[in-house]
Design brief:
single chain, 486 residues, alpha+beta, Thrombin, subunit H, Pdz3 Domain, six-stranded antiparallel beta barrel, 27 strands, 17% helix, 33% strand, disordered C terminus
Length: 486
């Protein structure tokens, strides 16, 4: 029996498949035996040299980020990566790297020590944050490209600091484009790559073989599955943050996909669109006459298709990509008839609520439109109890997470500002009557305060000690947050 031909040991597995891009086209298949490799020829070297060149060029613009974040009553250290966007100190990273951060510091390649960073702004819906530092000399700025021209199968590099290992480079391909992930709040159509994106890589760049940043790495999902925010989205968000804030269009509805079973039930197996679940009071959708049960089939001339939950992201991006005040046309189906109506979009309500911490062992949040819907709160007025510490006066009084505080002593609480003023007015009292709504019940809770004496060194010890907590005590992952409607 003839022995099978073997690939020379020096040739890496899969290298022959990579030659087509860097070298001449492979010859047409022939019945003749292939020409044996000539001694000393290393056909993968051009690709290898390109990877080395690009990584050497890009790594000076990739920084290491450390953030001390406080979630409820615990502090933890979170690490990530960032991309230098301007020579005078602008840095792009992920929202989830600096969320709830009390302190952020940056380590710059080739420079000693850490530099304190300011969080200029952050956007939960795209997982993008803008940091700013004050360097003592100009920084190495990354070259930005565009994700529009990326093709599935194209080679890319992911650069970051996984597990604190600075300047790590991984090599892979673009596995898919336009991925909608079923992760609440996120509006991105992600780039999927098999270049490694591990813990600590978040916020680092995805780079093409011309050395241009085409995305900001966001999250990994198992080995060989990573998701990257298109750089076009990241740069647009950075611009809006720098100009003072982000505004997005809003309809005021929640929706679900129209799967094949629903389409068949409605008598049209080819029906596509999104099914309206609810309509907010006073919203643009309500003013336009939309009702639960309507099926939106087109938005501003573009067909709407959503067969699975993750497909809803495309429709949400359609709405959010418009500015508040834009006039759009909606085509929808009600019963057996299709209708069309003009809608003037509103301003998307706040997604991330403001929060206040008390000395009585509980935190509260303002009641945003999305919080009211998601938690099915009994009232829009008041503040939402988001955390109650064990053994605290609030816990002993019976206050629970999910309660809505509507008054403190004789002061009514309609929003976060009212609550803060009420708590300030009674700060010297040793007993405090808090009235809260819990479902359909009203609870009258008496907080018996006790003096809290804590030396400054205890605070420092708590901050340091919490850094060694187990991974399960870390802040919740960005995919654990609830989702708003478009």
């Amino acid at each position: 029996m003839r022995a099978l031909p073997r690939i020379p040991p020096a040739l890496p597995a899969g290298a022959l498949a990579l030659l087509g891009l860097l070298g001449p086209a492979l010859p047409a298949r022939s019945e003749e035996a292939p020409e044996p490799a000539r001694p000393g020829v290393r056909p993968w070297e051009p690709l290898q040299e390109r990877i080395i060149e690009v990584s050497d060029r890009v790594k000076p613009s990739v920084v290491h980020i450390e953030a001390i974040v406080k979630v409820n009553d615990r502090r933890n250290q979170v690490t990530g990566s960032g991309v230098i966007a301007s020579a005078d100190g602008d840095i792009l990273t992920n929202h989830h790297v600096v969320e709830h951060a009390e302190k952020v510091s940056v380590t710059i390649p080739g420079r000693k020590g850490k530099v304190e960073a300011e969080v200029v702004g952050s956007d939960k819906q795209t997982d993008i944050a803008l940091l700013r530092i004050e360097p003592d000399s100009p920084l190495a700025v990354a070259e930005f490209g565009s994700a529009e021209d990326l093709r599935v199968g194209q080679w890319v590099l992911a650069i970051g600091n996984p597990y604190g290992l600075d300047g790590t480079v991984s090599f892979g391909i673009v596995s898919a484009k336009g991925r909608n992930l079923e992760i609440p709040h996120l509006l991105n159509d992600f780039i999927q790559t098999d270049a490694m994106i591990d813990r600590g890589s978040s916020g680092g760049p995805l780079v093409d073989l011309d050395g241009r940043v085409v995305g900001i790495n966001s999250r990994g999902q198992g080995r060989g599955i990573g998701f990257t925010i298109p750089i076009d989205t990241a740069l647009d968000v950075m611009r809006q943050i720098a100009e003072g804030g982000i505004e997005r269009g809003w309809l005021g509805i929640t929706v679900q996909p129209v799967d094949r079973d629903l389409a068949a039930y409605f008598g049209d197996p080819d029906l596509t669109g999104v099914l309206v679940n609810s309509v907010s009071r006073g919203s643009p959708a309500e003013r336009a006459g939309l009702e639960p049960g309507d099926i939106i089939v087109a938005f501003d001339g573009r067909p709407v298709e959503a067969e699975k939950e993750e497909d809803l992201g495309t429709f949400q991006r359609m709405v959010a990509s418009h500015d508040p005040g834009d006039e759009v046309r909606l085509r929808y189906r009600r019963g057996d008839r299709e209708r069309e109506v003009g809608v003037r979009l509103g301003r998307q309500p706040k997604v991330v609520p403001e929060e206040a911490e008390t000395e009585d062992g509980f935190h509260v949040q303002e009641i945003t439109e999305s919080l009211y819907r998601e938690q099915r709160l009994p009232t829009r007025k008041g503040v939402y109890v988001s955390f109650v510490a064990r053994g605290s006066p609030a816990s002993e009084a019976g206050l629970r997470r999910g309660d809505v505080v509507v008054s403190v002593e004789d002061r009514k609480v309609e929003d976060l500002e009212d609550f803060e003023q009420a708590m300030e007015a009674v700060e010297d009292r040793d007993r405090l009557l808090v009235t809260a709504r819990r479902g359909q019940e009203t609870k009258f809770l008496l907080l018996k305060r006790r003096p809290v004496i804590r030396a400054a060194e205890d605070d420092d010890r708590e901050a340091l000690g919490s850094r060694s907590r187990r991974p399960e005590d870390a802040p919740p992952a960005p995919d654990e947050a609830p989702a708003p409607g478009p």
